[in-house]
Design goal:
Layout lengths: L3 E6 L6 H11 L8 E6 L5 H7 L4 E4 L16 H7 L3 E4 L2 H7 L3 H13 L3 E6 L3 H5 L3 H12 L5 H4 L3 E4 L13 H18 L2 H6 L1 E5 L4 H8 L6 E4 L6 H8 L4
Helix pairs in contact: 1-2, 1-12, 7-9
The structure holds phosphoenolpyruvate.
Phosphoenolpyruvate (PEP) binds next to strand 8.
C-alpha cells in the first residue's frame, strides 16, 4: 500500500508567529512511516514554515505559471523555489470561484510546476448544483482531462489530486466515504484512459471537504482515497496531529 498523503490547508490564516507556535507543537509528533504529512500556508509564512518543519512538508497555496513579469500581486515558481518550497496547491475551489481560476490556468500552473521539478496538488470538485443534478462524475472527469492536458505520463505520476466537492468545503457536510470513493474511482478511471491503468494507480488522490478526526479513518479505508486535504481542522494542533496520525 502506498503512503497516505495528508495535507492541511491554512488558507488566509496564520501569521509567522502562529505557524512557528503551531510547528513547535506538532512537527516532532508528525513522524509517521505510513503518512506523508503536509501543510499549505500563506506565502508570507512559507519561509518560517520551511525553517521550522522537519517532518512536515510545506506547501504554497497558489503560484503563477510565468517565471516573472508584469503580474502585480502574483508569486512565481523561482520565488517559491528560493524558499525551498516543493508542493503547491493549485485550482482550489476558492480560487476558482472567487478569483476566476480556470481549468486552463490550472493546467498552465501544473505544467510549469512539473517542469520545475515541483509537486502540484491539483484540486477539483463540483458545486452543490452539479452534485444535485447528478453530473458530478462527468464534471470532475472533464476537470481532470483539462488539468492534465499535455502532461506526460512520467510527470502525471508526480501530481497529487485533491477531490473536494465544493458543497463539503467548510460546511461541516462531508461526502460519505462511499460518495467520495465513487468520485475518486471515476478520477482514477479517467486517468487510466488518458494514460494507462498502471500510471493511474500511482497517482495519489486526496479527498477534501470537512475532514476531521472523527471521519478520517472511514475515508482513508476507501480503495481510491490516498489521503486528505484538510482546511478548518488543520488549524487546530490537536486535530491536525490526530489527522496525520489517524493510523496510530
Ligand atoms: C479545503 O480548504 O481544502 C477544505 C477541504 O476545507 P475544510 O476541511 O474546512 O472543508
Amino acid at each position: 500500500m502506498k503512503n497516505k498523503v495528508i495535507f492541511g490547508n491554512w488558507k488566509m490564516n496564520g501569521t509567522n508567529a502562529d505557524i512557528k507556535a503551531f510547528l513547535k507543537t506538532v512537527d516532532k509528533k508528525a513522524k509517521n512511516d505510513k503518512v506523508i504529512a503536509g501543510l499549505a500556508v500563506p506565502f508570507t509564512a512559507l519561509e518560517t514554515a520551511i525553517k521550522k518543519a522537519k517532518n512536515i512538508k510545506i506547501a504554497a497555496e497558489n503560484v503563477h505559471w510565468a517565471e516573472n513579469g508584469a503580474y502585480t500581486g502574483e508569486v512565481s515558481i523561482p520565488m517559491l523555489q528560493e524558499l525551498g518550497v516543493e508542493y503547491v496547491v493549485i485550482g482550489h475551489s476558492e480560487r476558482r470561484e472567487m478569483f476566476g481560476e480556470t481549468d486552463e490556468a490550472v493546467n498552465k500552473k501544473a505544467l510549469a510546476l512539473l517542469k520545475a521539478g515541483m509537486v502540484p496538488i491539483l484540486c477539483c470538485g463540483e458545486t452543490l448544483e452539479t452534485y444535485e443534478n447528478k453530473k458530478t462524475n462527468k464534471f470532475v472527469s472533464d476537470q481532470i482531462k483539462k488539468g492534465f492536458k499535455d502532461i506526460s505520463a512520467e510527470d502525471a505520476k508526480k501530481v497529487i489530486i485533491a477531490y473536494e466537492p465544493i458543497w463539503a468545503i467548510g460546511t461541516g457536510k462531508t461526502a460519505t466515504p462511499e460518495i467520495a470513493q465513487d468520485v475518486c474511482a471515476t478520477i482514477r478511471e479517467t486517468l487510466g484512459k488518458v494514460y494507462n491503468k498502471t500510471i493511474a494507480k500511482e497517482i495519489a488522490i486526496q479527498y477534501g471537504g470537512s475532514v476531521k478526526p472523527a471521519n478520517i479513518k472511514d475515508l482513508m479505508k476507501q480503495k481510491d482515497i490516498d489521503g486528505a486535504l484538510v482546511g478548518g481542522a488543520s488549524l487546530i494542533a490537536e486535530d491536525y496531529l490526530e489527522l496525520i496520525n489517524y493510523n496510530k
